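Exam revision sheet. Question 4 asks you to relate a sequence to its structure. Input first:
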Amino acid sequence: MARDANQPDISALRIDKTKKHSDRPRSRVWRWLGLVVVIAAVVVGYFLLKERVTPATTVRVASATIISGSDAEADLVAAGFVVAQRKAEVSSKATGRLAYIGYEEGDTVVVGEVIGRLDNADFAALVERAEAAMRQTEVDTLDSGRNYRRSRKLFESGSITDVELEAAETAYQNALATFAGARAALRVAQVDMDNTYIRAPFDGTILTKNAEVGEMVAPFASSSSSKGSVVTMADMNSLEVEADVSESNIHKVSTGQRCEIILDAYSDVRYPGYVKKIVPTADRARATVLTRVAFEQKDSRVLPEMSARVNFFMRPAAEGNDTARSLTIPKDAVAVRDGRTVVFRVDGETVTAVPVRTGNDFGKRTEVLEGLKDGDVVVVAPPGKLESGQKIEVSQ
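Answer key, structure tokens:
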């Protein structure tokens, strides 16, 4: 049929059914699929590389451990040091060169015993001169006394006038005054001589020797080349523990309260004690109150300046529970994150923030009531940016 010249040619719009679907171009589809695969590989590689490249945070760790017996029974634990209440740095009252010292560290002395002596030849010469002057005035006094007695007898017999008697009496009184002055001068010289001897002020033990023979010793160590003291000594019977108790716990401490003292050097030895005194002032900077704890029994192992731990018990000994057990961790392992009390438990090479509930304090450790078990390893003093899942490295 002939096509009308006025109608458009639509033959080009017909679908060619002889062509197959596979003959269509697919290059654009593969291009998008490849782009998706590359992006996925980049993302996965980034996280894998980040895990390997991200530096680990260096931390210190400690274990959660169980304490038992009196450690767990204690209502309060405080740290302190053994301090001698009678302690002195012994020096001379004079200035001079040390000529003799007769004791070493650890030796015991009794009150008044000579520990050392300064070179005192000049003081000895002054004593001799004072003795000679006193003997001279003693002779003059004796002569004046005899003359005065003779003058008095002569005056009674009328042989001399009262003026001559008064002159003899005046000469005798002047001689007595001169003799008294010479005797005082001798005493001063003897005291100066005695000041060159360094004596023990009380019974005690020599702790340190601060000067050697030949060194200059001065009472106030006025120069860098002189020593202020010869020895440091202490009365070992006056040893006590001075412990700092936080203000928030001072209500748990009272005078006479039963205590137990544990020296860090001998942690398996327990010394019974009691609260001797609570110093009536607080340390503003540390918010603590100084408490003095006396030993009921002690031995030669207790030494000044040793670090110690004191267990305070609010109950009598008969009510103690020897089977008490408490799980504890270092105090500085506890942190606050988002208003929660947590510790960072070490899980392999990473950490996990674990909420915990704490109890009593035991010196530098605190009780954990919930959240951990015996043997768990926790981060000590965790950095402020430490988070769960973060990689760590344990410092040696």
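Marking note for examiners. The chain has a mean pLDDT of 84.
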